[in-house]
Amino acid sequence: MHQKQPPARIAVLVAGGGELRARLGPTRSATRALKRAKVGILFIIADLRQCCSPFVPLFLGLLRWPLLSFLLSVPACEVQSAHHPESFRGSPLIEVDSLIDRLDLEKIFGHRAALDVDLGCGDGSFLCALAQRMPEKNFLGIERLLGRIRSATRKAAKIANVRLLRMESSYAVRYLLPAGSVETFYLLFPDPWPKRRHWRRRIVTEDFLSAISQALAEKGTFRIATDQREYFEKTKEMARANSNFAIIDPIVADLPLTKFEKTFRAQGAPIHWLELRKVSPVR
Prior knowledge:
Radius of gyration: 20 Å
Number of strands: 10
CATH architecture of the largest domain: 3-Layer(aba) Sandwich
Number of domains: 2
Number of helices: 9
Strand content: 15-25%
Structural class: alpha/beta
Distance between the termini: 58 Å
Low-confidence stretches: 1-28, 37-53, 62-89
Strand order of the largest sheet: 6-5-4-7-8-10-9
Largest sheet: 7 strands, mixed
Shape: globular
Helix content: 25-40%
Mean pLDDT: 76
């Protein structure tokens, strides 16, 4: 007896004006919501548990706006094995079974431990070096670019406490990481978008800091490094205005060097570090 398929549901993420809004609903209503949105950047995500539905490719085919990026793509045949440690088959790359449910970190790592997250982990050099120094902790690297995530996957293949996720960092922080699950976030040398008209593309915004705060455990820390003084000052200004954070003296002497930091040091460029600690807002 054939099991009746549930109605297709589409998650529509609309990015514009520094905001990322999520809508989830049946295909028809999601299409109407998308037509009403007047923004420049669109991210369309199908709930992969429903990817067998014929309505999903039909919906995507009706789009009249340029689709700039899928945040993640997982083959339908592999969805059922996701979130289980045995499904890695020697690879640390996470296969998520939904883009709207929080990650089950205990299943992903196979045990419970403090978690550090490297946002935009690049080729994984910093992430893997840090994970080898602290085998008692779990480490998650998040990277959007395919070439970099492949390099990171090769480096992390034999490191038991490292997992990788190919995803936009801002999306993963806001929608996938469980509340209070992260001990330390690292954001090392993000794209500074130095031209003023491009500032809206920067990853650090008020909304992003709020999402970081939600994902951090009590007294958790957020470490940021940049070679751009203006970006540093702007981020510091936003942090001061956020009651969930206190600015503390950065502790960076014991951290591995990233590829960018090695390059900037060789050029004599100053490195600006900002460390934020999550605090309880004063009521």
